[in-house]
Amino acid sequence: MASIFATTLLTSGSATLLATAIGVPLGARCARAGGLEWLRVLVRTLYGLPPVVVGVLVYLLLSNDGPLGPLDLLFTVEAMVLAQTLLVLPLVWGGTWAAFDAITPGHRHAIALLGLERWNGLKVEVGLVWRGVLNGVALGFGRAIAEVGSVLMVGGNIAGRTRVLTTSIVLETSKGDLGAAVVQGGLLLLLALAMMFLIEGLRGIAPRATAPAKAASSPGGLASSFPQHTWDRISVVRGGVTVLDLRNLEVRGGEILVVLGASGAGKSTLLRCVAGLEPDVEGAPVAQGRGGVGLVAQHPVLLSNTPLDEVLLAGGAADLLDLVSMAGLEGRPATALSGGERQRTSLARALSLRPSMLLLDEFSSGLDLATTLRIEGLVRQVASEGAAVVIATHDLAQAQRLADRRVLLVGGQAVDESSEEGRALLGLALQG
Prior knowledge:
The chain is α/β, with parallel strands linked by helices. The protein has 17 helices and eight strands.
């Protein structure tokens, strides 16, 4: 009985691990690519893949006349693992795909700006949807441990070698020993229960963020210097509608450029263009990652469990949280942070990169006046250290306090503030 139990755990556990190693990257890639609904339908169809069909396929592959016949794997544990992996893979793949659909473009932009290696970026994404991924893994293990048809066909139910609990139950029932079959069925349920408790425990432990070695925090200042850059033209068209059309936009190091405009004027789109996050516009003037672009979105997303994890992920240090008035909140769960606390945490993450370009989109909308003024002091310091700062805001008073230059957007185009349209916008729309 111990041998049967061990073979069951080895076979189903190995198949689930292999399917996870293959299915999680596949699910992440498919969710990121988008537009693959035909493939999603196919993967979901394979949820009901008959085990006997998989058994026949693996048998043909491993038989003496098959392409893998020389490996002599038929009627071995390895053959059973292969069959169960093929059965489990669609469940893990599809479950991971569904989980990764919850990652928004904002999350992907934040990850991209960290400049992480592809594998490290995938780990951050998995951390965001950890519980959903584990649901897919749990479904996969449940199918693997209950499977009988394919492992019977390719394993042969050989005593002491390839016999597992499901095939043993079938054998005992065919012999009329129902008592033994019931006992083994109970063991099978207990094994499944133990694994589900383990997976449920893992669901409660979200992966902690770790800073890449190449992005270790370094002393000295909040920013890196930036010379200047001019975009001859920035044009973004969506659905036949021109969202943004600017010419000769210049950004200079050591200067704060404030972009004003009503809602829908194109301010947020402009910041994404400057950061190199819009495919319509040719690349950013600086590379993503350390010394590159730091962005605080209007509705910031967090990539970690706590503010401290957030700055560590970007290669920063805990003292950055003190600078943004987050002292004492380092370990607070991200889900418990207020809107203003999320904005300040996002700013600390951006500053962790020591950016040469800092982009701020309504970065103080959730802050009280005293905190806003302290944060504005940090923004001035970033500019004084040579970085380019671009701020999108509705707040005319803030623009007057911070701006070295201003750009007023109307319908995606720059207008003169002294024009009738400009005066009307500054006098009315920006007061809302």
